[in-house]
Amino acid sequence: MIKHIIAGFATILAIWACAHMISLDKEVHKLDKIHALIKSTAMEDTKLGGAKVENSKAVVIQKTVSTSNADSQDKKIQKKLAALKRKAGNIAAFKVSPLYKKRCSSCHGNIGQGIIGPKLMGRDKDYILNALHDFKSGKRKNYVMYGLLGNMTEEQLESLASEISTFQKKYDESQK
Ligand code: HEC
Fold first, then answer.
1. I want to staple 135 with a disulfide (CB 3.0 to 4.6 A). Which of 30, 36, 78, 145 is the partner?
2. Residue-level pLDDT, tens digit, the chain, 176 residues
3. Pocket of ligand 1, candidates 103, 121, 123, 148: which has the most ligand atoms within 8 Å of its Cβ, to mutate?
4. Final residue in a domain of this structure, among 39, 73, 93
5. Same domain, yes or no, for 89 and 100?
6. Are residues 30 and 77 located together in one domain of the fold?
7. Could you list the residue range(s) of the whole structural domain that residue 119 is in?
8. How far, in Å, CA of 15 to CA of 7, rounded?
């Protein structure tokens, strides 16, 4: 009889142990799930990292866009510089008579823009010729101009006057 009771107890114990094992197993299972969850969040993280990488790609793209902007700005500046150089070149290539170059340009500038002497560019022929006459005759007193014009002929004065009167137009054309 007692043997039966002990066997019964043993069975109950065994069943309880089994149940306990099952619940433990469940716990382990839960742990596994938690692990999986952590792993999946880790995956999320790497995904985020991927997004970050994509973001940085976007930054790189933006940078290249901005550098290409800078490039186009560079090109604009270079174009402007080229235009300025061309214009300067045009001025340098400005053809003046040997007489003007030798006798007048040192004070009035290569294109009559004025240096020591006043700007002549833009003056009309009559104004220039009158001034030259007045300097030469001494009516308009200026020792520099008086001394310069003393040994010059009327033809030279006239050709100089008509030449200088074209400077403005020539200059304007060189700046187009
Ligand atoms: C050494 C410098 C010098 C040289 C070279 C010189 N000039 Fe002058 N020129 C002057 C000065 C200074 C004046 C201003 C005189 C004044 O207003 O009293 C002047 C004035 C003039 C004016 C009057 C400008 C105005 O606004 O009324 C004319 C025109 C002129 N020069 C033409 C010439 C011509 C043409 C030559 C070449 C043959 C020449 N000059 C060479 C110094 C010079």
1. 145
2. 767 766 766 676 675 665 666 666 776 677 677 667 666 666 554 455 445 555 555 555 565 566 677 888 889 899 888 888 888 887 777 889 999 999 999 999 999 999 999 999 999 999 999 999 999 999 999 999 999 999 999 999 999 999 999 999 999 988 88
3. 148
4. 93
5. no
6. yes
7. 96-174
8. 12
Sorted by sequence, the CB contacts under 8 Å of residue 171 that are 6+ apart come out as 91, 94, 111, 113, 121
What tokens does 55 get? 């973001």
For a mutational test of ligand 1's pocket, the pick from 124, 137, 144, i.e. the residue with the most ligand atoms closer than 8 A to its C-beta, is 144
Asked if 169 and 111 sit in the same domain, the reply is yes
- This prediction's pTM: 0.64
Q: Are 50 and 80 contained in the same domain?
A: yes
